[in-house]
């Protein structure tokens, strides 16, 4: 065997101990007998995150589940509880209770500095065939895809390593066997592998996962404002985000942002229209989400607004927004 083959074998034998098989079932009730029974909803893959039994996978792998089972590489089966969900990035954290000796956490890498053309390996459970290895390269970087709730996921890795139904939630590894992403979607007219797969980058995962473990959800930085829907702004011919309301005591109020108001005649009097954040144009709500996703609580951003037809810059210190 060649060196490349030996490296693949070594990576697979190390990493597969950190990869789990996930089955998702829902409870249904028979309308005639009223008896309940479990219905398989699907299967997927996950990775062991730590010795406390946390498993990271895709949100869509566990969506709608009443019961979740995790099968480790030693074929032992464990009931899992949902710890945290982040549908915006298609991520979920589960937890199983078992001996620490059975838990071998994945080796975490870095998705910053990846290069198109570098070798990658994917491990998953396509079509229920557990612990399947496929290889390929990084085909492109900084792709954007849509999550189940239609939010944009930024910085996504594109790969030609074969990814099929059941691979979702499994690791994308670099040539050293380190996690660089979690496989989440494919582009295929038939629903099977067509050479284009996408993975959420590990730097997003390492940022989100600790929050899902601690809070059960992603705590987002924000300005404490609500916006008039994009469709209405487009109908009015306005380019930018129209502030509908500024929450009392919010970062937006402290910075002096102004909301729309209703006049005594029942007409809408516009307040601030957000046109740029840190010099980057914002035209729709998705632009705002994408920019804020790069920031953390306590960051200060410069918001350019149109107020009564004149540009104005406002500095906002981002705070945790539920």
From TrEMBL:
InterPro entries with a match to the protein in the record: Chloro_Bact_Ser_Proteases, PDZ, PDZ_sf, Peptidase_S1_PA, Peptidase_S1_PA_chymotrypsin, Peptidase_S1C
Organism superkingdom: Bacteria
One Pfam family linked to the record: PDZ_2
UniProt KW keywords: Hydrolase, Protease
Domain PDZ: 212-283
Family: Belongs to the peptidase S1C family.
Protein name from the UniProt record: Trypsin-like peptidase domain-containing protein
Originating species: Candidatus Nitronereus thalassa
């Amino acid at each position: 065997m060649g060196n490349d083959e030996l490296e693949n074998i070594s990576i697979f034998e190390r990493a597969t101990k950190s990869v789990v098989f996930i089955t998702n079932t829902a409870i249904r009730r028979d309308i005639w007998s009223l008896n309940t029974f479990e219905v398989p909803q699907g299967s997927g893959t996950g990775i062991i995150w730590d010795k406390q039994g946390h498993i990271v996978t895709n949100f869509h792998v566990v969506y709608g589940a009443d019961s979740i089972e995790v099968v480790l590489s030693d074929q032992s089966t464990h009931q899992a509880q949902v710890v945290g969900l982040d549908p915006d990035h298609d991520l979920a954290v589960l937890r199983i209770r078992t001996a620490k000796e059975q838990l071998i956490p994945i080796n975490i890498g870095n998705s910053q500095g990846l290069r198109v053309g570098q070798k990658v390996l994917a491990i998953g459970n396509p079509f229920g065939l557990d612990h399947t290895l496929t290889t390929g390269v990084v085909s492109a970087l900084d792709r954007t895809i849509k999550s189940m709730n239609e939010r944009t996921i930024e910085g996504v890795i594109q790969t030609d390593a074969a990814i099929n139904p059941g691979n979702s939630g499994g690791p994308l590894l670099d040539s050293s066997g380190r996690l660089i992403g979690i496989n989440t979607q494919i582009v295929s007219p038939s629903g099977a592998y067509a050479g284009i797969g996408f993975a959420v980058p590990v730097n997003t995962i390492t940022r989100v996962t600790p929050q899902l473990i601690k809070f059960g959800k992603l705590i987002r930085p924000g300005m404490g404002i609500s916006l008039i829907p994009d469709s209405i702004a487009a109908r009015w011919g306005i380019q930018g985000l129209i502030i509908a309301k500024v929450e009392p005591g919010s970062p937006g109020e402290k910075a002096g942002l102004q909301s729309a108001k209703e006049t005594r005649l029942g007409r809408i009097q516009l307040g601030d229209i957000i046109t740029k954040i840190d010099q980057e144009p914002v035209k729709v709500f998705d632009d705002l989400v994408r920019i804020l996703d790069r920031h953390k609580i306590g960051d200060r951003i410069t918001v350019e607004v149109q107020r009564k037809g004149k540009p104005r810059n406002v500095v906002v210190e981002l705070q945790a927004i539920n």
